[in-house]
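Session log. Operator J.P. requested a structure for one protein chain; no other inputs attached. Running the standard single-chain path with C-alpha cell output.
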Amino acid sequence: MTLILFVIGLVALVAGAEALVRGAAHLAGALGISPLVIGLTVVAYGTSAPELAVSVQAAWLDQADLAVGNVVGSNIMNVLLILGVSALIIPLIVARQLLWLDVPLMIALSILTLVLAQDGRIDRWDGAFFVSVLVAYTVFLIRKSRREVAAERAAIRTANLDHPSAGIVASSVGHVVLDVVLILAGLGLLVLGARWLVNGAVALATYFGVSELLIGLTIVALGTSLPEIATTLAAAARGQRDIAVGNVVGSCTFNIISVLGISSLVSPEGIKVSAQALQFDIPVMIGVAIACLPVFYTGGTVSRWEGALFFGFYIAYTIYLILHASDHGASPLLAHAMLWFAIPLTAATLIIHSWYYFRRGRIDASRELPSAANDPPR
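Structure written below.
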C-alpha cells in the first residue's frame, strides 16, 4: 500500500507541476506581472506549501528538530540538488533582479536565522518579524513588477511599430479564470502528492530508528521539496527559465520568513534549535546561499559545470548526514573537510571565476568604445 501511494504521489507531483507552470506563465502576462516575480511568489510559495504544512504540524506537536530540519534541509536541497540537476539538464538564465535583490535577501535571512537561534530557539517575536518581512517583500515584488511591465508595454505602444501589440498578452476573463484553475489544481496535486510521499517515507525512517533532525534534513526535506523539483524541471523544460530559477530562490526565502516564521508563532514556546543544527546544518545553509552570488553572476547563467558542482556538494552533504546518524568515525573528518577545505576552496574558485568575467566584460566594453586618440581630425 505504501508503494502504491508513493507511485500515485509521484504522478500527482508531475501533473501538478505541469499545471502550475502552465497556469502561472499565462497568468503573468495577463496580470502584467513578470514571469520572474510569478516564480518568486505564486510558484515559490505554492510549492513550499508542503514545507509549511509539515513544519507547522511539527511545531504544534513540539517536534522542533523536525520543523527546523525541514526548513534547513529544504533550502540546502533547493540550491544544491534542484538547481544543480536543472542546470545539468539545461543551463539556466539568471535575471539581474536576483543578483541585486532576491539572492542578497536570501543570504541575509539565512544569516539572521543563525543569529536569532544563538539562544537555542526561534521564539514568537522572531517569527512575527519573519512574517512581517514576508508581507512587505511580496507587496514590493508585485508592485515593482507591475510598474516595469506597464513601462515596457507603454514603450512598445509609443514606438510606432508595425505590430504595436507585440509582446502584450491579450487574455479574456475566461482565460484568466482557466489559469487560476490550473494553478489551484496544480497546487492541490503537489500538496497531495507530497503528503503521500512524506507519510510513507517518515513511517519507514521512524521504523529504522533514525533521529527527527535527520528525518527532517533528508526524508522530509526531500519529500516536501519534490514540488520544487518537479516544478523547476517542468519550467526549465518548457523554456520558462525565469520561473525555474525564481522558484528556487523564492522557495528558500519563503521557507525562512513564512515556514519558520509561522511555525515559531504557533508553537507555544517557539522552536528549539539543536546544537547540531547551529554548529553545522545552518552554517551549510548560509554557505550554499552565499555560493549563489558568484555562480549567478558569471555570465548571467547557471552553467552545466556549476550545476555539477552544486550536485556534487549535495552528495557529499548527504553522505555526511548518513555517517553522522550512524555514529561513524569518519563523520567528524568529513564535516571539517567540508567546512574548512571544500567550501572555502569552492568559494575562492567562484570568486576568481567571477573576477575573470568582470575583467573580461570591462575589456570587451573598452574595445567597443572608439579611442579619442584615433579619431580623425575634424
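Operator note: Residues 371 and 377 are 13 Å apart (CA to CA).
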